[in-house]
Amino acid sequence: MNNQNINFTQLEADLSAIRDHTLQQRGADDARYIRRIICLQRVAEITARVLMFGCFFSLWFPLAGMLLLAFAKILDNMEIGHNVLHGQYDWMNDPNINSRTYEWDIASDAGSWKRIHNHEHHTYTNIIGKDRDFGYGLLRMSDDLKWRPKNSWQFITYLNLSLLFEWGVAYHELAAERVFIGKKKANRTSALSDGELKRMFFSKAGRQIFKDYVFFPLLAGPMFFTVLLANLGANLIRNLWTSTIIFCGHFTEDVQTFTEEECVNESKGQWYHRQMLGSSNLTGPRWFHIMTGHLSCQIEHHLFPDIPAHRYVAMADEVQKVAQKHGIPYNTGSFFRQYGAVLKRIWRHSWPDKTTIKKNRQAG
């Protein structure tokens, strides 16, 4: 990480000024926005459920219902759930969208998400050994991580993770804490016991399975299997979309990693700098930003995680000017360009780096 020519005090002042100005504008417009999105999501979900019961008339009805339900689930997870759980709307004092009480339509327990994502990932972004979101314990995404033979097929692992992403997220904290494996780490981060983590995992996962694969299919009566398959299809579409957007924001080729030593006694300006180097953006129309939960502006989200996300697009112009002023790379591009960069990174790190190859030859 090249820090030589950066005035971190000025960088902090410039970015904090953008944050403060945005907070001064926060108010009724933000409340109306999130309530409109919630209304849209609920109408889409109800309509989708009704359409699924129409397979007596045509198979196009459950297919349309599946696609509309996937849309509703994406909105619920990305633009509503993820942003609400970051506390972006706590100031409204609305108990239905408060980060302390909100639960979302996904297998992951909201409390687990806030511990592993909100605190750990957003605090220690891309610090190898501290940010367990970097590769999710399954993928080698940097030469900083030791190559293992299993990394040779990590492209297949990535595809499976994308299809089952909600379950990967749900299990992430338990896997990180070695709950089922029984090999406790000395630097365990969770304050909860194994029993508490298991109880919350199985409770939320059980409710989600019952709702999607038992309750709604049973309501359909003779159309049980049609609705079951439509629900499964909607979840798979949502998982693929969510994982793809998240990977585009975190694992493009130019995203940088950091060592723990580099980040000791880090100032706020240095933390800002790390967030900018460790994230990447996506360009696109307004509907695209909404469907990504505005994680298309991942740089701004990492800088200002508690700002209402629909403001990120406007903030991005100002953040990019600050980046240019201080000579900091601002990684942004189209969806296909950035996703291509993600796939290249996964493939490149599937194989050992030159140092590893040299060591293996010497050992042989």
From TrEMBL:
Give the matching PANTHER family: ACYL-COA DELTA-9-DESATURASE, DESB, FATTY ACID DESATURASE 2
- Keywords assigned: Membrane, Transmembrane, Transmembrane helix
Pfam families associated with the record? FA_desaturase
Transmembrane portions of the chain: 50-72, 213-234
Instruction: Name the chain's protein.
Output: Fatty acid desaturase family protein
Using the record's annotation, list all stretches that form the Fatty acid desaturase domain: 59-332
For this protein, the record's InterPro entries field holds:
FA_desaturase_dom, Fatty_acid_desaturase
Superkingdom assignment: Bacteria
